[in-house]
From TrEMBL:
Annotated protein name in UniProt: Cytochrome b561 domain-containing protein
PROSITE patterns: CYTOCHROME_B561
Residue ranges constituting the Cytochrome b561 domain according to the UniProt record: 38-242
SMART domains on file: B561
Region feature (Disordered): 1-29
Membrane-spanning intervals of the chain: 40-65, 77-98, 110-129, 144-167, 188-206, 218-236
Locations listed in the record: Membrane
Length: 249
């Protein structure tokens, strides 16, 4: 049932607190009785879910349809899997709003983030080992993909460290209340880093290995990345980003 304003009647006190960047208040809000898995496709979530899956599938198919290279092939496989896991990590937390749904969302978010971090770390390590063993006289970092990748790894380490410490060790920030004040910056940074990672994947299509060996098409990767953006960002909560104050209860 909806009110005359179109806002779901079962959220009478939270219309502004749960208002996403695009859409009506309550459009992307997890119900207490609903499985947390449904957070992955609420609102525009299904679009980013399709995009992340298409991105991973296109890269995995391109890798396995060509000769495998032990110190090269795992790099795109792991990083595309990391992007998929990170997309799920963002989506599963976005619709949470009550203490119980937030807690469940944070656990799932942290678990998926840990998995994505392991994928990115392994992917970066493999390619660094490859570069170290390579007899290629050219500089190791000579492409936009390489520079974006190095930047992504650096900011990811910082982002994961801050996120984990705020959640598990709030005393570091002077207590839980003070830690909560830092959350909005953590969320903002997360959305910026997500764009950086998608840009890194698109830039990879210009490297000799991706374009000539794997024959990855820039347009196909860009379309999949675009779907991720279209699905994720409209669901961002204005209140969680600090762009709208919470209504007093």
């Amino acid at each position: 049932m909806s009110s005359a304003t179109g806002i779901p009647a079962h959220y009478p006190d939270e219309p502004r607190e749960n208002e996403p960047l695009l859409g009506r208040p309550g459009d992307v809000t997890q119900d207490e009785e609903t499985s947390i898995i449904s957070n992955l496709w609420l609102g525009t979530g299904w679009i980013s879910l399709v995009g992340a899956i298409l991105l991973a599938l296109s890269i995995w198919l391109s890798v396995f349809l060509h000769p495998l290279l032990p110190l090269v092939s795992p790099h795109p496989l792991l990083n595309s899997l990391g992007i998929l896991a990170l997309t799920l990590a963002i989506q599963i937390l976005q619709p949470t709003w009550s203490p119980s749904t937030k807690r469940r969302g944070q656990i799932a978010h942290a678990s998926l983030n840990l998995f994505s971090f392991l994928c990115f770390t392994a992917g970066a390590t493999i390619i660094l080992v490859n570069k170290h063993r390579s007899s290629d006289p050219h500089p190791h970092f000579h492409s936009a993909h390489a520079y974006l990748g190095l930047t992504s790894v650096a900011v990811l380490v910082l982002q994961y460290a801050i996120g984990l410490s705020m959640w598990a060790f709030p005393a570091v920030y002077g207590g839980e209340e003070r830690a909560k004040k830092v959350w909005k910056y953590h969320r903002m940074a997360g959305y910026v880093i997500y764009l950086l990672l998608l840009g890194t994947v698109i830039a990879a299509t210009y490297t000799p290995y991706a374009s000539k060996v794997l024959e990855l098409k820039t347009w196909s990767v860009a379309v999949a990345a675009g779907l991720c953006v279209v699905g994720v960002y409209p669901r961002a909560s204005l209140t969680k980003l600090g762009l709208r104050r919470e209504n007093p209860q």
